[in-house]
């Protein structure tokens, strides 16, 4: 039997990149998946089509996770479509790099609203439906450890996700809901390609500091999410799992 048969998962920000990879990985192990998107319906529909084409079950649901009403609507849509909720992957995230002299209020709020407030709002909406044995997985970043320059706000959001993960693990543990984080290093995605990171001197510098000698692939993160969502990780909570090929 597949590891996640009978389970229902929401993956936020799943129209592309790491989120899409996680959605496909969860579905491949038997979970019914809600593929959330904020703007790219075509991308989300493509992920759903790939899952259904492989014999899985998925629906696309629009929702801006940084808005309370839309976060609640996303969770309600999942329960309406599949009757329950067992797994939440808080993957939605945005990034924008700037030196401290160029940080603005808009720069700050855009990133904190999606990366931190969005994580809190969707979790708040979900915990009323996730029962004992449920799993919440937050997608952080290795930047909270290596703190590279010119990314102080983004790094701050991911440090906050680390703190949120530990706090919620303690708060929800008595309800037998596990909360963990995956903190990837640089992963090759549509986003990192379009930002010209892949193939750049920055990528080569990161590879040079990475013991396993390459950047990540979305499948590297998807398999870890399957583990944390499954009963194999039934005794794991409050952990921040760095998935960076040894970069830290």
UniProtKB/TrEMBL annotation:
Annotated GO MF terms: glucose 1-dehydrogenase [NAD(P)+] activity
Enzyme class at the top of the EC tree: oxidoreductase
Entry EC no(s): 1.1.1.47
Pfam families named among the record's database cross-references: adh_short_C2 (PF13561)
Keywords: Oxidoreductase
Domain of life: Bacteria
Family to which the UniProt record says this protein belongs: Belongs to the short-chain dehydrogenases/reductases (SDR) family.
PANTHER family registered for this protein in UniProt: OXIDOREDUCTASE, SHORT-CHAIN DEHYDROGENASE/REDUCTASE FAMILY (AFU_ORTHOLOGUE AFUA_5G02870), SHORT-CHAIN DEHYDROGENASE_REDUCTASE FAMILY PROTEIN
Name of the protein: 3-oxoacyl-[acyl-carrier protein] reductase
Species: Gluconacetobacter liquefaciens
């Amino acid at each position: 039997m597949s590891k996640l048969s009978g389970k229902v998962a929401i993956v936020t920000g799943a129209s592309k990149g790491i989120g899409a990879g996680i959605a496909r990985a969860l579905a491949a192990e038997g979970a019914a998946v809600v593929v959330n998107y904020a703007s790219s319906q075509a991308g989300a529909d493509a992920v759903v089509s790939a899952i259904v084409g492989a014999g899985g079950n998925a629906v696309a649901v629009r929702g801006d996770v940084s808005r309370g009403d839309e976060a609640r609507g996303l969770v309600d849509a999942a329960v309406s479509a599949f009757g329950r909720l067992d797994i939440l992957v808080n993957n939605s995230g945005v990034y924008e790099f700037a030196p401290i002299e160029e940080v603005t209020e808009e720069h700050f709020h855009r990133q904190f609203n999606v990366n931190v407030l969005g994580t809190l709002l969707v979790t708040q909406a979900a915990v009323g439906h996730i029962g004992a044995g449920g799993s919440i997985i937050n997608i952080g970043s290795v930047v909270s450890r290596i703190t590279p320059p010119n990314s102080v706000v983004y790094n701050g959001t991911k440090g906050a996700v680390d703190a949120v993960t530990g706090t919620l693990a303690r708060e929800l543990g008595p309800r037998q809901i596990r909360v963990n984080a995956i903190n990837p290093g640089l992963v090759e995605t549509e986003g990192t390609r379009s930002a010209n990171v892949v193939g750049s001197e920055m990528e080569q510098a990161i590879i040079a500091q990475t013991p396993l000698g390459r950047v990540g692939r979305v499948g590297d993160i998807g398999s870890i999410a399957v583990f944390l969502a499954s009963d194999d990780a039934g005794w794991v909570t409050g952990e921040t799992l760095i998935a960076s090929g040894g970069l830290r």
